[in-house]
Design goal:
179 residues; alpha+beta; Alpha-Beta Plaits; 2 domains; four-stranded antiparallel beta sheet; 6 helices; globular; DUF1697 domain-containing protein; DUF1697
């Protein structure tokens, strides 16, 4: 069995689209996955599955989730190697010590150079970003909550994704390595 991480988008945000983590773990168990663990309320699940590939796992999880909870959540399923590479390829290692100001977004696909250029044109504040494959790294020196750039990022880039702060990234890596 291989280790995977499922990153849910848009659940338990602002009191909306509530999903209890115990129920989410039970859902993964019903799907036949093993060694299931969740981290914080924003929808992070580490699990083991027969190596079916991330696309096949996503196509298995998303429709069942929507049927169960009555709304769609974009789910990014990634394997252990992906999250290890995400951490190893951090372009801002000097910022890793302040995990609330460093973020990584798992993107549905690698953006085109035109999409990245369009985003770079809009990055005029103190924020910095780098895209490596299907990961967008974002440094927000004033914090994500005060970042105007973070607000426009999804609709400017137009590549679906889900963002986690560096503390969450490192915790998920640790959980996945121990699974």
């Amino acid at each position: 069995m291989s280790v995977f991480v499922a990153l849910f988008s848009g659940i338990n945000v602002g009191g909306n689209r509530i999903v209890k983590m115990a129920e989410l773990r039970a859902f993964f168990d019903e799907l036949g996955f093993a060694d299931i663990a969740s981290y914080i309320q924003s929808g992070n699940v580490v699990f083991k599955a027969e190596a079916a590939g991330v696309r096949a796992l996503t196509e298995r999880i998303e429709p069942g989730f929507e049927k169960r909870w009555g709304f769609r959540s974009r789910i990014m399923v990634r394997d252990l190697g992906w999250i290890e590479a995400l951490v190893a390829n951090n372009p801002y290692p000097d910022m890793a010590g302040d995990p609330t100001k460093l973020h990584a977004s798992a993107l549905e696909r690698a953006p085109t150079s035109e999409e990245v250029a369009r985003l770079a044109e809009r990055c005029t504040g103190p924020e910095r970003f780098v895209v490596k494959g299907d990961v967008l790294y974002l440094h927000t020196p004033d914090g994500l909550g005060k970042s105007k750039f973070a607000e426009i990022l999804p609709r400017t880039l137009k590549v679906p994704g889900t963002m986690r702060n560096w503390r969450t990234v490192l915790t998920l890596l640790e959980m996945a390595q121990k699974a």
